[in-house]
Specification:
Keywords: Oxidoreductase. The radius of gyration is 18 Å and the shape is globular. 48% of the residues lie in helices and 14% in strands. It is built from 10 helices and 7 strands. 48% of the residues are buried. It binds NADP nicotinamide-adenine-dinucleotide phosphate. NADP nicotinamide-adenine-dinucleotide phosphate (NAP) binds next to helix 1 and helix 6.
Length: 265
């Protein structure tokens, strides 16, 4: 989207914008001439907003999107701006690593609430006005973990399968509305994810990872091109990617587990 000086700048709302892929997505939107509404759970998002402000206007909302109140806070802030959302990046996400029989229920439920529930709540509130207006772009951060069962972060992989399926279905429903939905499927990416998910003692956490700036750029370009999805896994061995396409689910689960299983277990 090119913006000329006499046109109002488009607005992008980015969740999980304080670090990792979301921070880099916010930078892509800023470089693309979007004003920004950034959101994350802790106060760092204010620092990020200050850093990105300059040629574009950047606001921030601190909200725990794993709660209905947090989602409501963000939606109210969006509505208070009184301007349409041109791009919505539903990116905030977290995981809970470890054998399911040992993981804390709260960690599993927070994963589901943030990754699944907040995606649905935010889409329900913010997509209908896009459809009414006949324009908008939605980016949903899924994961290559969505493509196969994910032992040792079972609720995380399941949550990403949900958001991928949700994004693809929504894309179909909206195909004649002027609103596009794009799924971003990163492979292992060098962010705070593994530490937060309690997965530091896994093979995937110590393996090669993509740069979050590259992942975000590919997601942003796919979004702006109106593509259905983009899979970014340059750090993943080609043999593994190829095997994932042809193996039965049981074998995919076993292969995935070799990367996600705690090494001390
Ligand atoms: N890193 C990978 O290997 C990888 C691979 C595939 C997909 N992904 C997906 O990429 C997305 C971004 O993750 P990342 O890798 O960039 O990890 P990250 O660096 O940990 O970033 C996560 C972002 O989500 C925010 N967030 C976490 N809990 C929140 C909550 N309860 N309410 C609101 N915001 C919250 C964080 O903000 P606070 O710091 O304020 O909590 C942060 O801005 C996630 O959906 C993740 O599942 C990551």
């Amino acid at each position: 989207m090119s913006v000329t000086p006499d046109q109002p700048r488009p607005l992008a709302v980015v969740t999980g914008a304080s670090s990792g892929i979301g921070l880099e997505l916010a930078s892509c939107f800023a470089a693309g001439g979007f004003d920004l509404l950034l959101t994350a759970d802790d106060a760092t998002v204010a620092v990020v907003a200050d850093r990105l402000a300059g040629d574009v206007a950047v606001r921030h909302v601190q909200a725990d999107l794993a709660t209905a109140d947090g989602v409501r806070t963000l939606v109210e802030e969006v509505r208070a701006l009184g301007r349409p959302v041109d791009a919505l990046a539903l990116n905030a996400g977290t995981g809970q690593g470890g054998p399911f029989v040992e993981t804390p229920l709260d960690g599993d439920l927070e994963t589901v609430r943030l990754n699944v529930e907040s995606t649905v709540r935010l889409a329900k509130a913010l997509v209908p006005p896009m459809v009414e207006r006949g324009a908008g772009r939605v980016l949903v951060t899924a994961s290559t973990a969505a493509l196969m069962p994910g032992p040792y972060y079972a609720t995380y992989a399941a949550s990403k399968s949900f958001v991928l399926s949700f994004a693809e279905a929504l894309r179909h429903e909206l195909k004649d509305t002027g609103v596009t939905v794009t799924a971003l499927l990163p492979g292992p990416t060098d962010t705070e994810f593994f530490e937060r998910a309690d997965m530091e003692d896994t093979r995937v956490a110590h393996g090669k990872k993509d740069d979050p700036a590259d992942v975000a750029r590919q997601g942003f370009e796919a979004l702006m091109a109106g593509k259905d999805k983009v899979v970014v896994r340059s750090a993943q061995p080609l043999s593994q990617a190829a095997a994932a396409k042809v193996l039965p689910d049981r074998a995919k689960a076993a292969m995935h587990a070799t990367y996600t299983k705690p090494q001390d277990g």
